[in-house]
Amino acid sequence: MANGSLDRWIFNKNQDLSLDWQVRKKIILDIAKGLAYLHEDCNRKIIHLDIKPQNILLDENFNAKVSDFGLSKLIEKDQSQVVTSMRGTPGYMAPEWLSSIITEKVDVYSFGIVVLEILCGRRIIDESQQNERYLLELFTRKQEEGQLLDLVDKCNDDMQSNVAEVVEMLKVAAWCLQTEYANRPSMSTLVKHFEGSADAVINVNEDFQNELTTQAPAESFASSITPSVLSGPR
């Protein structure tokens, strides 16, 4: 793909190479459409299990494609959940992986993490930060303080010019990151919401603070996982 993977663009601190708000919003919609197709439109449901910026590829027009199905899981349409071995990348894995009983909502959780990274311009685990290494913890604190605008990528003037709309998207990300998987939206619901469908209005202003996962940092979450089942950067 002409423009490589998404991580190459969203973590770039060079403003000349930074993506503007409309491009980021389009990428988020493209990822949502791709996952909605996998979850609902295939003959057998496909759970990707490794959604992260390295696995989102961009063509010459910055259209996003979900890639790398090396860890994906096929399940029957009538199956609501499946038992499988833990797999994925630390930082992007939903809390229910601890039980090994999962649904397609693990992809919704990972999607929420990727949306956070796209909007904030920083990795979910940032080793360069001494006091704020974990973006999810910072996100939870900023939400409690009513200061979500502090998280909007400051390396791009266009993102700052559209800060109100970006903050609303941050609230949608929070809805995807709720601890209880049943409370997360389906990907098709998110697509309808992003496209402005009247029958898919999400009340993102409800009190999601208590539902936003406050799981331990990814390092401790992954401490019991053997390296063979983890997916590293491609």
Report what the structure shows.
It contains eight helices and six strands, in the order ααββββββαααααα. It has one domain: Transferase(Phosphotransferase) domain 1 (Transferase(Phosphotransferase), domain 1). Helices cover 35% and strands 7% of the residues. The strands form three sheets. The chain has a two-stranded antiparallel ribbon with strand order 1-4. A two-stranded antiparallel ribbon has the order 2-3. The chain is globular and about 45 Å long. The two termini are 14 Å apart. Helix 2 (21-41) runs antiparallel to helix 3, helix 2 packs antiparallel against helix 7 (187-194) and helix 3 (105-120) runs antiparallel to helix 6 (163-176). It has helices at residues 7-10, 21-41, 105-120, 135-144, 157-161, 163-176, 187-194, 218-221; strands at residues 45-47, 56-58, 64-66, 73-75, 82-83, 101-102. Mean pLDDT is 85; it is low at 214-234. With 234 residues, the chain is mainly alpha-helical. Strand 2 and strand 3 (64-66) form a beta hairpin.
